Amino acid sequence: MSSGDRPDGAPSPPDGSGADRARAAGPGPAWERPLGTAPDVWAVFVQGRHRDMHVYAGDVHAPDAEMALVLAKESYTRRDPCVNLWVVRADHIHATTQSASEMFAPATDKSYRFGGSYRQQRRILQSSYKASYREEDQ
Amino acid sequence: MPGTLAAIADPAVREAFREWLLRMADDELVIGHRHSEWTGVGPDIESDVAMSSIAQEELGHARALYEQIAEDEGGDADRLAFGRAAGEYRHAALLEQENEGWEYSIVRLVLYETFEVARLRLVAASGQEPVAGLAQLLTREERYHALFGETWLRRLAGGAPDGPERIQAAVDKAWPDALGLFEATPADALLQHAGVLRTSPGAECDAWVEAVRPVLEGCGLRIPTVTAREGGRRGVHTPAFEELLAQMTEVWRSDPEARW
Question: pTM here?
Answer without folding.
Answer: 0.83
